[in-house]
Amino acid sequence: MSRPNVLFVMVDQWPGALLGSAGHPVIQTPTLDHLARLGTRYPRAYSECPICIPARRTVMTGTSPRGHGDRNFAPALEMPALPTLAQSFRDGGYQAYAVGKMHVYPQRDRIGFDDILLAEEGRPQLGAVDDYDMFLAEQGVAGEQYLHGMNNNDYLHRPWHLAERLHVTNWTTREAARMIKRRDPRRPAFWHVSYTHPHPPLVPLAAYLHLYERERIDLPAQAAWAQERLPPALQTIRDYWPIRAVAPELQAIRRAFYALCTQIDHQLRVLVGTLREEGLLDDTIILVSGDHGDMLGDFGLWAKRLFYEGSAQVPMILVGAAGDGRVPADHVDERLVGLQDIMPTLLSLAGLPIPDTVEGLPMVGERRRDFLYGECKENALATRMAHDGRYKLIWYPTGNVVQLFDLQEDPRECQDLAGAAAYANVQRRLEDVLVSRAWGVDEAWISDGRLVGIAAGGVASRADRQFGGQRGLHYPQPPLSDPSRPVGSPG
């Protein structure tokens, strides 16, 4: 039996709840919903570190942030000397190609792929002119992709300003379809398609905004705990994105975000159609996932870095090759899943060995984890998570604030159960998970086996002189800059 092809699609900053198949009341995702009917959806899938670079290092190495060395967002940190997902496929006789956002350093590091066509969100100052930039130049619009004026790290929005075919979502799809057509027919293929949206800038095609014009856009979740004094990891986010909590403004942001999602969903049909017409669809494993989500105003919070469902939960849909009973059709699997599980899942389904360095578990078969550990940042904005599949404990070391949620009874995390006598055993068990997994700076935040954290003072919010990493005219290309300096976040 010949080995199956693999199509691995990643989206950026797409909350796991934004799927019709997950019961969302507004979002239009017909393609992803169809894939969910053909395969298995994992509603308990999470990013172990919900920031772009650490999350992608986890995906590509099958390891936790501790394993690959980043839980902070380190733009100039090279990939560790570990077997990668792409190299493991190539070692197994596969051709391996990628299109889109990789977020590695240096940008032209192929991390095991035969070749990569890059779309790196306008980062030529880090040392590479990407392939999408070159495409735009060939089309006579060199450096004009950011003349819409919107920002890559905030929630201003407007329709895309250039021709539809020049949008990065459409470019990524077209180049991926061409890669499928240009395959070597004698060998199986591993294709990675990595979309840069719905991550801001919020610039969908006007046609997709029109799809949502008549919809009643849902509003962000609210909770009593969010009205109380917040730890710095949360308050700094509110200060960094001072978006008015008024319904029309919140709905307009969500409408633009949803439009970007549906644009990607429809473009996925081009990839599916290409596989079908090339006679490959039945012989191709398809996995769709994301690097992390976006709070989208829930509890007055935005973007990522947090372990609430909006930020940490990711879409995860797996479709096996036709007739592969290991991936049941029209199935919802409630097991706890992390991004570290993508690599062993795809390798095992393809019949390839899993490197010993991999920490993740295949998402198929009987093995299950008892808990999932999450970790983000090492400074005053640090946050940690312990999740057992039903209960989720979130810890903010600065101020030593603990929250506990029962996701079975309270899926929107509106009721904080921390400190409640009825849940004392649950809380202690999950706190013990955090203690047992502590490393690095965390060890100073624990004493005698208990979480003690650090004092909450000294975290100042200030206006952002960098305008969140605002892009400008990109022709001629911006000069090189310090690659280790992150922009676009509160810290």
Kindly describe this structure.
The chain has helices at residues 30-38, 52-61, 65-68, 85-91, 131-138, 168-181, 206-211, 232-240, 247-277, 309-312, 342-349, 424-436; strands at 5-12, 40-41, 45-46, 95-100, 115-118, 189-198, 284-290, 316-319, 331-332, 337-338, 372-376, 383-387, 391-396, 401-406, 446-447, 450-451. It is of the alpha/beta class and 491 residues long. An 8-stranded mixed beta sheet has the order 5-4-6-1-7-8-2-9, sandwiched between helices. A hairpin with a 6-residue loop joins β11 and β12. The N and C termini lie far apart (51 Å). The model has no long low-confidence stretch (mean pLDDT 96).
Describe the largest sheet: 8 strands, mixed
Helix % is 25-40%
Strand percent estimate: 5-15%
Order of helices and strands: EHEEHHHEEHHEHHHEHEEEHEEEEHEE
User: What class do helices, strands and sheet pairing give?
Assistant: alpha/beta
Overall geometry: globular
Rg, alpha carbons: 22 Å
Query: In total, how many beta strands?
Result: 16
Number of helices: 12
Short description:
By secondary structure, this protein is of the alpha/beta class.
Q: How would you describe this structure in keywords?
A:
491 residues; alpha/beta; 12 helices; 16 strands; globular
Topology:
Blueprint: E1 5-12, H1 30-38, E2 40-41, E3 45-46, H2 52-61, H3 65-68, H4 85-91, E4 95-100, E5 115-118, H5 131-138, H6 168-181, E6 189-198, H7 206-211, H8 232-240, H9 247-277, E7 284-290, H10 309-312, E8 316-319, E9 331-332, E10 337-338, H11 342-349, E11 372-376, E12 383-387, E13 391-396, E14 401-406, H12 424-436, E15 446-447, E16 450-451
Parallel strand pairs: 1-6, 1-7, 2-9, 3-10, 4-5, 4-6
Antiparallel strand pairs: 2-8, 7-8, 11-12, 12-13, 13-14, 15-16
Helix pairs in contact: 6-9
